[in-house]
Amino acid sequence: MSPLNLLAALLRPLALLWLALSIAAPAARAQAPAPNSAAAREAEINAAFDAGAKAGTRGPATVKLLDQATLAIPAGYIYIPTAEGNRILRALGNTIAGDSYQGIVMGLQRDDSWIVVVRYIKEGYIKDDDAKNWDVDGLLRTIKDGNDETNKDRAARGFPQIEIIGWVEKPTYDAATHRLVWSLLSKDKGEPDSADKGVNYNTYALGRDGYFSLNLLTSFSRIDADKAVARKLLAALDYNSGRRYEDVDFSTDRIATYGIVALVGGIAAKKLGLIALIGAFVLKFAKVIFLGVAAFFGGLYKIFGRKKTQA
Predict the structure, then answer these.
(1) Phi, psi angles (nearest 5°) of residue 169
(2) Contact between 271 and 97 (Cβ < 8 Å)
């Protein structure tokens, strides 16, 4: 059997699981599914994960992030590049805005159900003086305002709208490493408080010309375990010599027009467009999605691992 046929065979269980979840889905579709229908979303999710698996870089490996930095991908993780990662995120109902997006990282273990979105925003050196005094209430209000705009796009594409509830982890900044961390709690509008909630666990690494954003997407029930993933990847990001925060030259370098507070408030909400990326649609089916993906990626590991051993 050829490698392509093996890949197709491994992906088949995921497609079958989604078929079982489709409401009143016919056994055979003579016509293309209606836009924004469950069947259309199902087909696109399957195709997006398939493309991501083929294009991804499995750890342990080091991937280059533009001319700015490198990211060490640990064993058991996979880095999916820009186009294929973007397709996965949009298939799951997420808004990707601008050209800052670089790719996504996913776990290959069977119980992994998280995604880390990697972005780079090149808007100059960001002064961190204002990190000493966080107005967390004001920041939260600004983020909620930005989420209202994101909800318009989600509603137009047939996905649930999101309600921002509050902080999971209030903003903290490490002035020695120039790393920022904060996290929000969200849920689908109209869902009961007892429902599992989406979490964005946001981490940032500041550099000379801008900053990298590594945004962990998971659920509230898993945040205590999964936030270690985000911090591990944040520590694995290494700026190139000359591109580090301390390499700044104030006489020649571009200085951003906003400070670090804006990375938690308006700039993060409006420019990144990543508020509450995982809503009820993803959370309800996350176990099925990621079990299928883990089985698929696990199959890739066995295929390529076996070939390496035999060689």
Answers:
(1) -140, 120
(2) yes
